[in-house]
Amino acid sequence: MNDAAAAIGGADRIRAVKTLVIEGEGTQYNLGQDVTPSAHGQTFTVTDAREAIDVAGGRMRIELTRKPNFAYFQGPQPQRLAQGIDGNVGYNVGPNGAATRVPDAVANDRRDALLQYPITAVRAALDPMAKLANARTEGGESLVDVTTAGGQAFTLAIDATTKLPTRVAARADNTNLGDVVAATSFADYQDAGGLKMPARLTIKVDDFTTAEYRVTKQAVDADTGDLAAPADAAKAPAIASVPPATVAVEQLAKGVWYLAGQSHHSVLLEFGDHLTLIETPQNDTRALAVIAKARELVPNKPLTEVINSHHHFDHSGGLRAAMSEGLTIITNQGNVALYEEIAKRPHTIVPDALAKNAKPLMVKGISEDTVLSDGTMTVNLYPFSGPHSETMLLTYLPRERLLVEADVYNPGPVQSFAANLLEQLKKRNLRIDRMVPLHAKVAPYAQFVKDVAAAQAAAN
Predict the structure, then answer these.
(1) What is the chain's alpha carbon radius of gyration, rounded to the nearest angstrom?
(2) What three-state secondary structure class fits 159?
(3) pLDDT tens, residue by residue, 137-152
(4) How far apart are CA 72 and CA 53, in angstroms?
């Protein structure tokens, strides 16, 4: 640690640092949201990025503009993001200037991110109350495990020759992936304010690169502006890591219920001797609430399976909860390998439902049009490939003339993916009365056609 401090600019200089301001540009990647589980091609171009850190005060604010380089919900226009951490309060600031408090788990991640930088990491390790352990050499790096006076833990690696920090890594929890290592690597050190500071940063979750940044300007003890949490966020009550789930029930037809209530919806289907859910999304809390509501609605029949729309993490985040309840996962064949991996991953940092109630994975991959029917209920499953995801399942109820889909169509003016869906539905010559989006309200098929036409006219 003394070697690292000396290489950066000296322990006394590091302890004296009050603020850091880092500006740059780069690329963000789309973990868990690409077109296939194994794809890594979706990127955002990041410009006008500015990170301001109050080193001693434990405050940080990041602002940047990012432009999607792929088909995106909101279209191709750039998005301005602003987020920060002030002590225990994490917050986001919207384009209109309104600030909202983020859940505690997000705030904790941002507090950990404060230490994913050479100066802040070494400064925390130099604290006499910090605990250093397990000094070791691996390849061309020297490593040491650090537990700060506040209880945060990370591993610092330094180059065995230059002694400059090469990366900071910390264990973290991911809803889908469980125990992961979040790491930031550093390169291309430059002189700034009497210190060595990296001009290139690479951020990873396990082996997946989530961001790469090139620093264009950096300063020590410069004016950061006001880094205090905005009043609306500061006075808001703390938010549980996962807010409670609410499930609103709407019966769409005999034996068909829409389980909505928040941002991600599900559909319950009643067969002659069992129940089937479409979608257990987001996380344990949402998935288990939907499962409980299904059993409450039809208590005399067992819930046996869940149809998963696609692999994106917000739609597969509740599958481990479904596994813990003994449900068979029905999904596009292209997602099976991912779900086999997800089922095996350890969740020890934040034990989830499957970690607490281990069950073997039961999964059925769908690679061609498939009919589930017992005479009382008929469901057609169609593998679907589009610009949003190439490994989706559409669920069609021919008797009820309902089409259940996720992310491809939501009623409204912006329709990035719906034209492709309409084209595929016309080829199948399906008779549809209502669209059942898993992110929005049920809409007439005629409105779907109208929205697509309006979006196409606007684009032209």
Answers:
(1) 25
(2) strand
(3) 999 999 999 999 999 9
(4) 31
Give the pLDDT of residue 412: 85
The residues near 235 (Cβ < 8 Å, ≥ 6 apart) are: none
Burial track 128-141 (b if 16+ CB lie within 10 A, e otherwise): eebeeeeeeeeeeb
Cα–Cα distance for residue pair 100/50, rounded to 1 Å: 20
Confidence band of 102 (pLDDT split at 50, 70, 90): very high
User: Order of strands across the sheet with 392-397?
Assistant: 370-373, 378-384, 392-397, 402-405, 434-437, 443-444
Cβ-in-10-Å burial (0-12, 13-18, 19+) of 449 comes to middle
Question: For residue 320, what are the contacts with CB-CB under 8 A and spacing of at least 6?
Answer: 176, 284, 342, 343, 347, 352, 353, 354
Tell me: the pLDDT tens digits for 308-319? 999 999 999 999
Q: Kind of pairing, strands 208-220 and 43-54?
A: unpaired
Cα–Cα distance measured from residue 42 to residue 68, given in angstroms and rounded to the nearest whole number:
8
Residues 101 and 222 in one domain: yes
Element (H, E) at 314: helix 313-316
Distance CA 294, CA 309 (A): 18
CATH number reported for the structural domain that contains residue 145 in this entry: 2.50.20.10
Mark whether 206 and 282 lie in a shared domain: no
Residue 297's SS3 state is helix
Separation CA 84–CA 109 (nearest Å): 11
Same domain, 119 and 263: no
d(CA 332, CA 337) in angstroms, rounded, equals 10
Number of domains in the chain: 2
Coil, strand or helix: which one is 165?
strand
Q: What is the DSSP string of 227-280?
A: -SPPHHHHTSPP--SSPPP--EEEEEETTEEEEESSSS-EEEEE-SS-EEEE--
| Token pair for 310 | 């696609």
Q: Which of 234, 259, 283 is the last residue of a domain?
A: 234
The three-state (H, E, C) secondary structure of 51-99, written as one string: EEEECCCCEEEEEEEEEECCCCCCCCCCEEEEEEEECCEEEEECCCCCE
Beta carbons within 10 angstroms of residue 76's beta carbon:
11
